[in-house]
From TrEMBL, chains A, B:
Keyword terms: DNA-binding, Transcription, Transcription regulation
Protein name in UniProt: Helix-turn-helix transcriptional regulator
Organism: Streptomyces cynarae
Coiled-coil intervals: none
Keyword Cell wall biogenesis/degradation recorded: no
Lineage: Bacteria, Bacillati, Actinomycetota, Actinomycetes, Kitasatosporales
Record PANTHER family: TRANSCRIPTIONAL REGULATOR, MARR FAMILY (PTHR33204), TRANSCRIPTIONAL REGULATORY PROTEIN (PTHR33204:SF39)
Keyword Secreted: no
DNA sequence: CGGGATCCGCCCCGATACTG
DNA sequence: CAGTATCGGGGCGGATCCCG
């Protein structure tokens, strides 16, 4: 099967499942969201993305951009100038998605502390048994 | 460092980054969302989850539930009856998250066709070069 | 400048078997 | 019924080098 790999396992299998997975398969990659954020305010060049994201490798930047382009979330425009100039821009579809992600951001910030506490409590409850005795 | 693995790489590194990643790290797992969906309407037993999700292994069901529990998204209640009876239930925090996921669902369904077309176009444009010559 | 190609480690997840 | 333990594959992502 000549199906390309987009980032998270199995497109085919989960197709029938809830559509949320479709979104997640597209956005759950380690860098996808940060790229969308960085490109949210207008066209941006490859190197600008590379510097603004911090920690990303050229490889992953390229791969993630390709996947986003493939899914119609970003457009890639090549300006055939002497030093090559490539600009990436969000599609309207991607800008809608970006807006939607904001409600997730909200949720995360509202419950960030609670989650941290829940983790600490869980770890305190389950880890010591290994060291204690 | 005794930090547990929750599903998607690096908690520490991305802590400073956008909080969306925090949510995704928690939900991007292959089964997390389906479990949240299955448990959305009320307490549900382990085996009920296992049967209602279809395709999930006992192992992954357990692991994903543990992570959700650790993050405070589900509660685990053990009834010490003769055949053991364990019920999982969403916390209010998780129900809020579930509601938020609905806007993602919407987005996915609105653009599902467009995305599929974008993919087909991209693949048609980039794949043939390998076979053609 | 904007990539592509390759090698490799790590973690996610599946399959199977065993337990209280 | 509700898990745990172990083995193993696959793919995501990092590092490095090379190209037009």
């Amino acid at each position: 099967m000549s199906q390309r790999n987009t980032g998270v396992t199995s497109q085919v299998v989960n197709a029938h499942a809830c559509p949320v997975r479709e979104v997640l398969d597209r956005v759950a990659g380690k860098w996808s969201v940060q790229i969308l954020v960085a490109a949210a305010h207008g066209p941006i060049r490859f190197t600008e993305l590379e510097r603004s994201i911090d920690g990303i490798s050229r490889r992953m930047l390229t791969l993630t951009l390709r996947n986003l382009e493939r899914d119609g979330l970003v457009t890639r425009t090549v300006h055939p100038t002497v030093p090559p100039r490539v600009e990436y821009e969000l599609t309207s579809m991607a800008r809608e998605l970006y807006a939607t992600l904001l409600s997730l951001t909200e949720w995360a910030e509202r419950h960030r502390v609670t989650i941290a506490e829940a983790r600490a409590a869980y770890d305190a409850e389950h880890a010591p048994e290994l060291l204690d005795v």
